[in-house]
Amino acid sequence: MLLDSDPIFVPSYDETTDYGALESADLILWEWGWVAEAPRALLAVKERLQIPVLAFTTALDRFWRGLEPGVLAQHIQAARQIDFVATLLEDSLPWYRTLCPQAHVFHMPVPVDTHRYRKHGQAPSEKDPTAISLAAPTSFIFSGEISHANRMDFGTFLVYDRLVHSHQVQGTTYLRKEEQIPLIREILQQSNLSMPDCKKMIRLRRAHRRIAHHYLTLWLPHALVQGRWAMTNAYLGIPMVTCDEIETHRRLYPHTVVDWRNLEEAYQLCVRLLEDKEFYLEVRQHALEAIEWYSIANARERLLGALRSRWPQL
Questions:
Q1: Is 110 helix (H, G, I), strand (E, B) or coil?
Q2: How does pLDDT run across 298-314, given as a tens digit for each residue?
Q3: Phi, psi of 287, rounded to the nearest 5 degrees
Q4: What is residue 157's three-state secondary structure?
Q5: Fewer CB within a 10 Å sphere, N or C end of the chain?
Q6: How far is Cα 61 from Cα 92, in angstroms, rounded to an integer?
Q7: Are 157 and 198 in contact (CB under 8 A)?
Q8: Can you give the C-alpha Rg of the chain in angstroms?
Q9: Percent of the chain residues past pLDDT 70, beyond the cut
């Protein structure tokens, strides 16, 4: 047990905060919320009680670029009151150190229960070499009557189309919402691109069995994602061709990361994984070993290391 075995839960989105109960707290763990109520709640606590706050962030382009202008100032005010900032991405450390110069900013990626989850993986000999997965779970964002396929990672499907024609692979893509499956099918059909099997993504605990049989994964995002899809593939022992913008991808799959625009290189790496068994096993083994960097034990030490900057006795 790292922290309190009986923590106090504080709602971030209403006015029912029990400030009296918080007086005995030594630390507040705050997940940075999107809406205006979240920074208001934090500022209200800091105004009444001088309790250190440790904030967990999300990916930059999913948060700061998505905030409504009317709440941006409050989020910046709240940021200046935070004592510890845990960033999911190491690449964003300089950004948050500039935003929160008063805080101890450290890298705290998503912890992975590697011991528990790696048992769901399959040996390469058990896999269908024509079965590949495409992208992380895809979603669409709608604005008025205009749909923005900005989470579709369209280059992934262009490379997949080439692989279908050259190696007769069969891909599966997963969507967050079942009602959006007809939309992606319509886009690919009208684009005259090969149609993968489209399925709704289920909860991660049940998803392992669904995706473990894939021989490789292809995903070329252009966004500051956290890399959880790469983590999932890594502990299942699935080689992955993906973009090099995220340190999670570079750490887990250094042999098969590419510039997201370099579709030719992505295609050639997929071909090599399909045809070169020794290279396939090398990529797979590296991922299985590198995923331990994200283990729960290592996550605990990262968190303790940050807290010791204030409480050396921990």
A1: coil
A2: 999 999 999 999 998 87
A3: -65, -40
A4: helix
A5: N
A6: 11
A7: no
A8: 22
A9: 85
